[in-house]
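Collaborator request, handled under Task 6.
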Amino acid sequence: MSWVNFVAKPILNKLFKEYGEMINLKIDSKTKNIELDMLLNGEKESITIKIENYEIIKDGEKHFITCNNVKASREWLKAIIDNILFTNVFPEKRIEIDSKYANLLKILI
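Structure tokens returned to the collaborator:
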């Protein structure tokens, strides 16, 4: 496991603890792709989410990670991502990053 994953995994597990545990994280800073495997609470098999062509951007004083193309290993999950998450919660396909982590993330990923 790379040190980026070593640092990111506990942060993401804390974020997702209500839903399950992230069991694998791959970040490819050259292709700007992220792949994560999660074992959801109550499930026997993990799910995979792929974020392709991500960007970390600054808009005013705020920092965001943009998710240009997201894929999921389950059709129902992809539908939730497209129809709820990116339609209602994050319509610009970007998620705000705490500014104290943004500059570090730009260097790491």
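The cover message to the collaborator said: "The beta strands are 20-28, 33-40, 47-52, 55-59, 62-66, 69-72, 94-97. The chain has one domain: 3-108. Please let us know whether this matches your experimental observations."
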